[in-house]
Amino acid sequence: MDLHVALESFAPEYRVETVGLERLSAGLPDSREVDRLSLSLHSIDSSAVSSFDFMQRNPDVLVISPGSRSEDFLRESDMAVMTDDASSLATWKTVMKKARGLMIRGNVSIFNPVLDMQGYPKKGYYSAAARELAKSGTRMLASAGWNEYKIDC
């Protein structure tokens, strides 16, 4: 199975670059430089002029949006796929299941500081590194917006 990789940056100008797996061997690139990483079982069309155009040209990709990090916070990362291709779907389901298996499943509450409200989903997934950061007082932020996660450490 060949795996194709694309790295996208959304600002200041949109750009997409296809890279080999060896470039990722040391881990994901810095999230300040890469807004989205896409994996595909098919060749990637990198002629896109926007993120929307990229998804239209490459409909069977698994996308990973790495969360940003500072001294004060860690923003949630996202992984998603939407495809009609049976082979891609089966592969991405396996990848996502393995990714979940590498994470901790535990109690997580969601706090909205603007409305001063807290909710309690059943369980959430997070990495051991995120748990250690939460223990040290680092704020865990949702991938977008102002919601915060509280991990029961």
Q: Any overview of this molecule?
A:
This protein has 153 residues and is an alpha+beta fold. 20% of the residues lie in helices and 31% in strands. It has 2 domains: 4-101, no CATH class; 104-151, no CATH class. The longest helix is centred in the middle third of the chain and has 16 residues, at 86-101. The radius of gyration is 17 Å and the shape is globular.
- Succession of helices and strands: EEEHEEEHEEEEHEE
Portion in strands: 25-35%
Major sheet attributes: 5 strands, antiparallel
Number of strands: 12
| Rg calculated over all Cα atoms | 17 Å
Class from secondary-structure proportions: alpha+beta
Distance between the termini: 39 Å
Question: Taking all residues together, what is the mean pLDDT?
Answer: 91
What is the gist of this entry?
The chain is α+β, with helices and mostly antiparallel strands and 153 residues long. It is built from three helices and twelve strands.
What's the structural blueprint in terms of helices and strands?
Elements: E1 4-9, E2 15-19, E3 36-40, H1 51-57, E4 62-65, E5 73-75, E6 78-81, H2 86-101, E7 104-106, E8 108-112, E9 117-119, E10 124-126, H3 128-135, E11 139-141, E12 148-151
Parallel strand pairs: 5-11
Antiparallel strand pairs: 1-2, 1-3, 3-4, 4-6, 7-10, 8-9, 8-12, 11-12
